[in-house]
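Entry 14: structure prediction run for Heme chaperone HemW. Input pasted below.
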Amino acid sequence: MPGVLPEGEPVPRDGALPAAARRAVGARGFGVYVHVPFCASRCGYCDFNTYTAAELGGGAGRETYADTVLAELALAGRVLGDTPPPRVDTVFVGGGTPTLLPADDLARILDGIDRTWGLAPDAEVTTEANPETVTPESLKALRAAGYTRISLGMQSAAPGVLAILDRQHSAGRATAAALEARDAGFDHVNLDLIYGTPGESAEDFAASLAQVVAAGVDHVSAYALIVEDGTRLAARMRRGELPYPSDDVAADRYLAAEAALAAAGFSWYEVSNWARSEAARCRHNLLYWTGDDWWGLGPGAHSHVGGVRWWNVKHPTAYAQRLAAGESPGLARELLTPDEAHMEDVMLRLRLAAGLPLSGLDEAGRVGAERARADGLLDADAYAAGRAVLTLRGRLLADAVVRDLLP
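Run finished. Output tokens:
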């Protein structure tokens, strides 16, 4: 089941932000995240804030969801006001399974964002999708509505691995959907992979990578399986039905991904993300990783504007009730201190191929960076040029390097 939200100070009922935060809007990139909390079934490894029809019971459902999001968007427009109006550089619709909503509803949400703040002329507009929930017709409708990028949850090409993960699509459906998205005119197509699932062989993962490359996508995300408390997969492992993931196997899979994707013309730009070109990089995720602003719409969605971070109530029913009463769905918020902002900046930027400037580290951090360079975890040439950039081995040990830079 979904995890627990952090604690913080209450969000004002009208959602008002401190004046300093409002004044900062427009000074850096601005994105919009839209959370769609519905899934046809729950995958065994998932602890995201998502709900099946059975889990929702008589709660808020899909039929009125777009209208509820538009109500929050209207509130957001009032909170930020007209001066200075942010231009939306990126939109990302995630979930859950956004494509369980009709394409017309996703189009209405995007139109609402455009009417509220205005989409930049070159805005990147992404939706996530499960492969079994899209068709050539729905993909064409999404593209016509203004969506430029689609991210498909493939996870694996091996039927046995998909079964362990409780995925509903067939082994070949994800790559077929990727080809359909290209035919529909999407500028950019991503496939997501999960590696390290119990029972997955090296050959299984190699076959998954080969299918991704053959599908002609221009972006790949690959993540090690994380077993979260409260999930069906965690329960199966506690009962001894499945072995726990192996760190050594995960490292081997990561090296295999880097080798196969690099040979196919992809370059890593974030530890878990590869793109065929700079234009194919996910600009919305880069907005997160570089500390820009975004407004999160939907239950459980997080936002970050002008150094203030807040998060909405999690359940769709509570979310809809607050908005129906004319109140902000925000549950709590926090104002990041300079030290907290610095720590997050180091943690996130170090994961990028661009790295981070050594000049931004304190003396202890620079000592740690020198130690990481001597251990082969930071690139020597980049270090000489004044930047901390992970080597391939450093990517495998990124968390340890962060600890070196933040002693």
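Notes: The chain is about 40% helix and 20% strand. Will compare against the previous run tomorrow.
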